[in-house]
Amino acid sequence: MIEMTTPEPTPLDPFTATEDGARHERYDALTASGSMHWIQFPGGSHGWLITSYDVARWALTDPRFSKGGPGQAPFQDRLPARVIAATDHHLLNLDPPDHTRLRRLLSAAFTRRRSEQLAPRIQELTDDLLDGLDRRFAANDGPVDLIAEFAYPLPIAVICELLGIPEADQGDFRAWTGPLVNISFSGFDAYEHAVTAMVDYMHDLLARKRREPGDDLLSALIAVRDQGDQLTEDELLSMVFLLLIAGHETTVNLIANGVRALLTHPDQWGLLRREPERMGSAVEELLRYDGPLQTAIPTVTTAPVEIDGIQVPAGELVVVSLLAANRDPKRLPDAEKLDVTRPEMSHLAFGHGIHRCVGAPLAQVEGRIALGSLIRRFERLELAVPAADLVRTPGMLMNSLVTLPVRLSAG
Predict the structure, then answer these.
(1) How far is the CA of 251 from the CAs of 59, 153, 297, 359, in angstroms?
(2) Which 3 state secondary structure label does DSSP give 19?
């Protein structure tokens, strides 16, 4: 029997669940009650949330679920046209053929081979940051926030070096990123300030790069823009906008959530210390267990579609929960268990299909080096607060910890 759209949204809201473990508990409860859930999203809109693995994987590849194209930038009627144009023409908003064209321009920079070639430099940056942690621990001046001291500065340094952005310019990105990825909870004023500052910065950065090009990805993209018709100026700006945000924020969460998971499972930490060759596959298990993203970018149905016995009309909002799908017990009976010896299996932490995160290979290399180096350097690392006191940032897209205070144990 085919059901029609349910008017009453589920009371289980994972996006406002901030206590440690509460978000997964709500997703688990949703998944246990079905694959599809009518829900009120942050910001007030209603739509369908998919939580099961099989339906999620299918929905991420079906062309009837559209990103909608330009016109998706927040606060379209309240921001200057130049700001909207510079943030509205990136991959996450586009369907083929424009998506195909733009993704092709980026793919070569983020292949597995190219990402592995960056490993020595990523290791250098990691070692420098760990030296700083060593000094902080030696000074014995209290707990250290591992996000501020390690999980954040490493990915931002890597993406800025790849793009050719000066180190002196990196300090503002953290303040901008929060409101930009958490729009419904940050509000218009914070978003307007952050997005306007970032767009102004990008215009200035492109002007500098045009005057003094370098051997970096941004200079290469500018050359593509200025020497042909493959890339418009708005697409170039939007691409830089996306790379600066998605190019580091996902990896910040990969590292922070991974450390949190391992410190609350000390047997797994010890195993990886004894068997560091497992680190590559361990990163995949950590991505599955507590990934950096809650959901994929929202889609809109372009035609009626039946999903798990529910008839969804054209024009309705459908969102895939990556976090829930990766813990679907129908696919993996012990999905709530962290097991870094688990044979590698496909997960949806970076999405699936044509919109799978283009930077996933780089994030995986960074995660492997960052976590492996941290475990090798600090045998006695522990949480400085009970795990129950850790807090997640409310939001729909990212699965972020606010802070991750750690210390060296006396034992």
Answers:
(1) 25, 10, 17, 10
(2) strand
Give the integer Cα–Cα distance in Å for 396 and 317: 14
Task: Give the structural domain span for 101.
Answer: 69-292+348-408
- Which tens digits make up the pLDDT trace of 261-318? 999 999 999 999 999 999 999 999 999 999 999 999 999 999 999 998 899 999 999 9
Residue 93, domain member (yes or no): yes
Number of domains within the chain: 1
Taking 3-state DSSP, the helix, strand and coil percentages for the chain, each rounded to the nearest 5, stand at 55, 10, 35
Burial string for 107-131 (b: 16+ CB within 10 Å, else e) reads eebbeeeebeebeeebeebbeebbe
Q: In angstroms, rounded to a whole number, what is the distance separating the alpha carbons of residues 282 and 340?
A: 5
Q: How confident is the model at residue 228 (pLDDT cuts 50, 70, 90)?
A: low
Question: What CATH code is carried by the domain that includes residue 234?
Answer: 1.10.630.10
In this model, does residue 408 exceed pLDDT 60? yes
51 with 294: CB under 8 angstroms?
no
| Cα 335 from Cα 343, distance rounded (Å) | 13
pLDDT value at residue 187:
84
Please tell me the predicted confidence (pLDDT) of residue 7: 57
- Coil, strand or helix: which one is 42? coil
pLDDT of 6 strictly over 60: no
Q: Which amino acid is at 201?
A: Y
How many C-beta atoms lie closer than 10 Å to residue 61's C-beta?
12
pLDDT exceeds cutoff 70 at 236: yes
| Distance separating alpha carbons of residues 331 and 98, to the nearest angstrom | 34
Question: Is residue 333 one of the residues assigned to a domain?
Answer: no
Backbone angles phi, psi at 3, to 5 degrees: -95, 155
Q: Evaluate whether residue 145 is within a structural domain.
A: yes
